[in-house]
Amino acid sequence: MLTIDYDRLDVRPGMRVLDLGCGEGRHSFEAYRRGAHVVALDLNARDLATTREWLGAMELAGEAPAGATATAVRGDLLRLPFPDHSFDRIIASEVLEHIPDDTAAMAELTRVLRPGGLAAVTVPRWFPERVCWALSDEYHANEGGHVRIYRAHELAGKLTAAGLTVTGKGYAHALHSPYWWLKCAVGTDRDAAVVRAYHRLLVWDITARPWLTRTLERGLNPVIGKSVVLYLRRDTVTADQNPAEDRLAVDEVPASSRR
């Protein structure tokens, strides 16, 4: 289940792509399939182990083009272990809402993106998220949970202040909003029959991708899409930074899914 439009992000073979807060790697996998040199970064060791396992399985199955590489790296979004201007594309999907100091995280994202590079940032959309918070404290008030709800213009303003230019906006996963509303209404820890039934519908939709639900979701995304996606570009470089030197330094990053 992808939140990012990879064609819109223009991910191409040979590009260096950073998946920030990769979780179990869903966005890293698609970038790898497209022939990129992928670095999947997260602080959660268990999620990284899953990502590393699946990247290795993809390599063995020949699911990525020759020359593509992928690695999973444990790291903190507030102190990224990469030189300036290391990446052509950056993905930060459903991660900033978890970080108390999101301004510092955005500054780090900008720092490691090369001038002219593109990024895609997604967060839960304000209205669907606000309903979830109203229905359930357990949904967000837990260790590692959501610490804020963004309005799209607020997120855009913060990313612009960090040095990025917003080039486009989109919405995704409208069919998932009612699922989370139901789950929050009955209790996030309860195994309610109605929640199980809706979950089966979502799994069927993701695996079968029938035209009816795909068309329905596209129509509903602007109204109740669970996620908002901002597409961004870094245009400038500060006077004390040398893009050519920094691009050479990125070769120090490991580039094999077997590591």
Automatic annotation (TrEMBL):
- Any Pfam family the entry gives: Methyltransf_11
Instruction: Please indicate which superkingdom the organism of origin belongs to.
Output: Bacteria
Which residues are in the Methyltransferase type domain? Answer: 18-120
- Give the record's keywords alphabetically: Methyltransferase, Transferase
Gene Ontology BP annotations: methylation
Q: Which InterPro entries match?
A: Methyltransf_11, SAM-dependent_MTases_sf
Q: Name one GO molecular function term.
A: S-adenosylmethionine-dependent methyltransferase activity
| Record carries keyword Methyltransferase | yes
Q: Matching CDD domains, A to Z? A: AdoMet_MTases
Protein name, UniProt field: Methyltransferase
Origin species: Planosporangium mesophilum
Please spell out the taxonomic lineage of the organism that makes this protein. Bacteria, Bacillati, Actinomycetota, Actinomycetes, Micromonosporales
